[in-house]
Amino acid sequence: MNLKNPSPRDIALVKTLLFALCLLPLGWLVAGFCADVLRINPFGLPDEVLGANPVETVIRDLGDWALRFLLITLTVTPLRKLTGMHWLVRLRRMLGLFAFFYALLHFNIYLGLDQSYDWSEIAKDIFKRPFITIGMLTFVLLIPLAATSNQAALRAIGGKAWMRLHQLVYPLSVCAVLHYWWMVKLDTTQPAIYAGVLSILLMVRVRDYWRRLRQRY
Amino acid sequence: MLIKCPDDIIPSEITSQDLYLRRRDFIKTGVGLFGMAGLGATGLLASSPALAAPKPTPPFSTARKSAFSTADESLTSYQDVSRYNNYYEFGTSKADPSRYADALQTRPWTVTIDGMVKQAKTLSIDDVLKAAPLEERIYRMRCVEGWSMVIPWIGLPLAALLKQVEPLGSAKYVEFYTAVQPDNMPGVRRRVLDWPYIEGLRIDEAMHPLTIMAVGLYGEALPNQNGAPMRLVVPWKYGFKGAKSIVRIRFTDKEPRTSWMKAGPTEYGFYSNVNPEVDHPRWSQAKERRIGDVLKRPTLMFNGYADQVASLYSGMNLKINF
CB B228: neighbour CB atoms within 10 A? Predict the structure, then answer.
């Protein structure tokens, strides 16, 4: 396989593998939930594989993965420029959609297993708790990006407007990290790591933006 | 306030060791049936039998039952009680304490009772075990994070311990200090909290019959990760009020500034009574997830101990005195 210029077949293969890889975290959580909570354990997973509070583990892990996929998606462009492997951009949509997919599951399991679909409680939560508010905002901002991720939508909106719309990914990533930061009881090490990674990814964009400006004038 | 507690229990009332050892089989069966019956509600129980409690040993296994125990609640499994812990001296994740607490040195152990007392006293752990007959106290434990357990503690009324000294009339509060063993506690290398961990109670709270110094659980000595060799249990307050591995108890006339108050003055107050109507600034306290359940259940006022303790706070605004 030519890394700089892979054949269409190679790219298809990479995409298939990546797709399967992206589903692994979900597979793990589903298997763990079945073993721990539903007591269905065909794979013989160790007891309490998701810990004493499996529902919380599922909600938090899904959130972690949504954030990770978001950051991985934002890594594609810098990585492409750094390595010259421009075909990587063709993986970006899938990665972004996986970020949305995990966020969707994260959100729904919060609604169902954390709040028992108690809508008045959920509404209170959204308005009263800054970390829920900003988490909700992150999810809402993800929706138009996921909805317009296909070619038809790109053509309908037009390249420039589409680009501008999808720049929402930057503020919403900041919101995602804040959502995590404000949720943590005391030890902010984990969200600080995500904040650090996101800062680097955003600074790369700022640098590139300045370079483009300077070239223009 | 009238609190009745049988002075002694007749021998025929005491569960035999054999039955005691098998009691969780009974609970498991019960849990299983309940789980099948109530799949929709709080059912889908995942009470796990895998990690059994160590073999009960005297004096813990022979602790007498107590009328103060919470009835009609199924116990949280020993595995969950001993593996899902907050003990930040060993790290901030729930799994850290059971992973690292083996290193804690619990013998020899002394606790010093000093401050505003006529004569300070230092007691060994054996003195503590003999200060009063050990009792089994089954209590709900509600963590400020929104989860809860039901734990069969073994312990003695804190009052029995405090009566070993004579506090001055001016003393109003009791302050508790957790051990700091930097070589054995990987968590204290980072200053996430102000070590040593400090907690406090008003004297009337400390003397309340529900307040105990726990020295064991499930008929065995306290596992290190649960605060061996002795830890405070105040069942109507959030779990963090229960200082672990206590080395010092100090009488004082000033409201103690606890480690959590220092870490988050707007989030953690001195009283920290379980109260579904007073939310943590960042999350609701109206519900809790009982470990083993899938869905949350409503949190009870004073964690269900309102009948016994509400009078301690009559006339107080609990929103201000959170």
Answer: 23
Q: Which of B190, B279, B296, B299 to mutate to test the interface with A (most CBs of A within 10 A)?
A: B296
Percent of chain A scoring above 90 in pLDDT: 96
A1 part of a folded domain: no
CB contact B192 to A (< 8 Å): yes
- Compute CA B258 distance to the chain's CA centroid, rounded to the nearest angstrom: 16
Q: Spell out where B29-71 has E strands.
A: 64-65
Mutate to test the interface with B, among A48, A115, A132 (most CBs of B within 10 A): A48
Of B147, B192, B279, the CB nearest to A186: B192
Q: How far is A3 from chain B (nearest CA, A)?
A: 41
How does B22-50 read in b/e, with b if 16+ C-beta sit within 10 Å? eebeeebeebeebbeeeeeebebbbbbee
- Residue A185 to residue B286, Cβ atoms within 8 A: no
A111 in reach of chain B (CB within 8 A) = no
Identity of the residue in A37, A53, A131 whose CB atom sits nearest the CB atom of B147: A53
- Among residues B265, B297, B258, the alpha carbon closest in space to that of B142 is found at B297
Q: B229, B215 in Cβ contact below 8 A?
A: yes
Q: Is B286–A121 a contact, with Cβ atoms under 8 angstroms apart? A: yes
How confident is residue B43, by pLDDT bands cut at 50, 70 and 90?
very low
Number of domains in chain A: 1
* Residue A187 in domain: yes
Give the ipTM of the model, two decimals please.
0.90
Question: B13-313 has which fold?
Answer: Sulfite Oxidase; Chain A, domain 2 (3.90.420)
Neighbouring CB atoms inside 10 A of A123's CB total: 10
User: Could you tell me if B139 and A45 are in contact, meaning their C-beta atoms sit under 8 angstroms apart?
Assistant: no
The string of pLDDT tens digits covering residues A76-102 is: 999 999 999 999 999 999 999 999 999
Contact of A56 with chain B, judged by CB distance below 8 Å, is answered with yes
Residue type, B57: T
Closest chain A residue by Cα to residue B259: A186
Give tens-digit pLDDT for B135-144. Answer: 999 999 999 9
* Spatial distance between the Cα atoms of B317 and B311, rounded to a whole number of angstroms: 13
Q: Is B278 on the interface with A (CB under 8 A)?
A: no
* Residue A25 lies in domain: 8-216
